[in-house]
């Protein structure tokens, strides 16, 4: 049933690693892949060539994400990758176009992807090989990122383009707004109007 050739024997440990990883929690899974202890890797995440993945502290990888690190993948600290997001660092385009899409083809092209610190990559995003995403950038869900993203910008669409630029004053005002609203909600929740469990904003209807 099992093939005994070089390719099969090379792939089998990767398959077993993926299988074992599904039985771990998100912190254990991050440690299993050799990532910082503060990182969290959710269920059904697939990492291709994890030895080529560099990740900073306090990163979060959502369910079903596929990270192709075969061409080199760098993710900065405090960055989140949304569920079912795809990151590519290689392409077989030329191999397909020339009918040379066989195992070991010399027309597979690899280019590294770099994602900065403090980034938020939404769910169902596709990031193409060779892209650099600057620090503190936001990529909206369902976007296709085919070219570099400047720091402190919000991009969206297919292909993704810049819709907004952030500065420190804007981020500071948003921090103040969210903390004030969460404090208001926690106050109402503590008074018996909602559920104070969990972190961040309590769940429930807090409209006035």
How would you explain this protein's 3D organization?
The structure is a single chain. The chain has 2 domains: 6-166, 3 Solenoid (UDP N-Acetylglucosamine Acyltransferase, domain 1), CATH 2.160.10; 167-208, no CATH class. The protein has helices at 6-21, 26-32, 93-97, 168-193, and strands at residues 40-41, 46-48, 53-55, 60-61, 66-68, 73-75, 80-81, 86-87, 90-91, 109-110, 113-115, 120-121, 126-127, 132-133, 138-139, 144-145, 153-157, 160-165. The protein starts with 5 loop residues before the first helix and ends in a 15-residue tail after the last helix. The protein is an alpha/beta fold and 208 residues long. It is globular, with a radius of gyration of 20 Å. 26% of the residues lie in helices and 23% in strands. The strands form 4 sheets. Strands 1-4-7-12-15-17-18 form a 7-stranded mixed β-sheet. Its EC number is 2.3.1.-.
């Amino acid at each position: 049933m099992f093939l005994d050739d070089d390719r099969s024997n090379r792939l089998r440990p990767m398959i077993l690693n993926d299988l074992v990883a599904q039985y771990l929690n998100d912190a254990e899974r991050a440690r299993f892949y050799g990532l910082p202890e503060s990182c969290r890797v959710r269920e059904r995440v697939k990492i291709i060539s994890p030895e080529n993945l560099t990740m900073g502290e306090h990163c979060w990888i959502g369910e079903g994400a596929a990270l192709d690190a075969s061409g080199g993948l760098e993710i900065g600290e405090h960055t989140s990758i949304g569920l079912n997001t795809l990151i590519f660092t290689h392409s077989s385009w030329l191999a397909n176009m020339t009918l040379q899409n066989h195992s070991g083809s010399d027309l597979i092209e690899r280019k590294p992807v770099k994602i900065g610190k403090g980034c938020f990559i939404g769910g169902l995003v596709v990031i193409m090989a060779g892209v650099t995403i600057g620090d503190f950038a936001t990529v909206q869900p369902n976007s296709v990122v085919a070219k570099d993203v400047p720091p402190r910008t919000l991009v969206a669409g297919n292909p993704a383009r810049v819709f907004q630029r952030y500065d420190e004053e804007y981020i500071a005002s948003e921090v103040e707004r969210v903390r004030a609203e969460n404090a208001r909600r926690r106050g109402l929740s503590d008074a018996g109007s909602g559920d104070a469990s969990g972190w961040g904003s309590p769940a429930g209807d807090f409209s006035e």
